[in-house]
From TrEMBL:
Compartments in which it is found: Apical cell membrane; Cytoplasm, Perinuclear region; Golgi apparatus membrane; Membrane raft
Protein name as catalogued: Epithelial membrane protein 2
Signal peptide start and end residues: 1-16
Family according to the record: Belongs to the PMP-22/EMP/MP20 family.
Quaternary structure annotation from Swiss-Prot or TrEMBL: Interacts with PTK2; regulates PTK2 activation and localization. Interacts with ITGB3; regulates the levels of the heterodimer ITGA5-ITGB3 integrin surface expression. Interacts with P2RX7 (via C-terminus). Interacts with ITGB1; the interaction may be direct or indirect and ITGB1 has a heterodimer form.
Keyword terms: Cell membrane, Cytoplasm, Golgi apparatus, Membrane, Nucleus, Signal, Transmembrane, Transmembrane helix
Topology of the protein relative to the lipid bilayer: Multi-pass membrane protein
Source organism per UniProt: Myotis brandtii (Brandt's bat)
Lineage: Eukaryota, Metazoa, Chordata, Craniata, Vertebrata
InterPro entries: EMP-2 (IPR003933), PMP-22/EMP/MP20-like (IPR050579), PMP22/EMP/MP20/Claudin (IPR004031), PMP22_EMP_MP20 (IPR004032)
Coiled coil start-end: none
GO BP terms in the entry: cell adhesion; positive regulation of integrin-mediated signaling pathway; regulation of cell-matrix adhesion
Gene3D superfamilies the UniProt entry points to: 1.20.140.150
Length: 169
């Protein structure tokens, strides 16, 4: 039982770490000489020149939705972990970790929404902000974007694990 508990805790911490990296790091769209994420666009010709994504961007509200969803998913994942630790000591024997599961599945939903919006609207964002994304046409999805989808899978699996898990001695 102790091994299962350690696995669940490590799995949850890994999910949170993936969410933090995907949200913070600047690698949602990368290529030779540039990298972009939901916060800024950077070019590395001779030195790194970054432009923050602000309200002068077309589709700024779309990027705000991605930003907000990623932040919310990270916060919900951390809250779910704290609630799991509280429920670990407060639940009666045989009860399920339903509240933890619901919050973790909400985190899963938020990261899925953020990654889906970015997947769907990336081309429009780049085309309508050509003065910022002139060199980015030959780019590919970066590791932060991939980590967001991996975090989706991890939060979904851990949410299901909490739903199935019962407290034992």
């Amino acid at each position: 039982m102790l091994v299962l508990l350690a696995f669940i805790i490590i799995f949850h911490i890994t999910s949170a770490a993936l969410l933090f990296i995907a949200t913070i790091d600047n690698a949602w769209w990368v290529g030779d000489g540039f990298f972009a994420d939901v916060w800024k666009v950077c070019f590395t010709v001779n030195s790194t020149n970054c432009t923050d994504i602000d309200d002068s961007f077309a589709y700024y509200s779309t990027m705000q939705a991605v930003q907000a969803s990623m932040i919310l998913s990270t916060i919900l994942c951390c809250i779910a972990f704290l609630i799991f630790l509280l429920q670990l000591f407060r639940l009666k024997q045989g009860e399920r970790f339903v509240l933890t599961s619901i919050i973790q599945l909400m985190s899963c939903l938020c990261v899925m929404i953020a990654a889906s919006i970015y997947t769907d609207r990336r081309q429009d964002i780049h085309n309508h902000n050509w003065h910022f994304y002139t060199l980015t046409a030959e780019g590919t999805y970066g590791y932060s974007f991939i980590l967001a989808w991996v975090a989706f899978a991890f939060t979904f699996i851990s949410g299901l694990m909490y739903l199935i898990l019962r407290k034992r001695k």
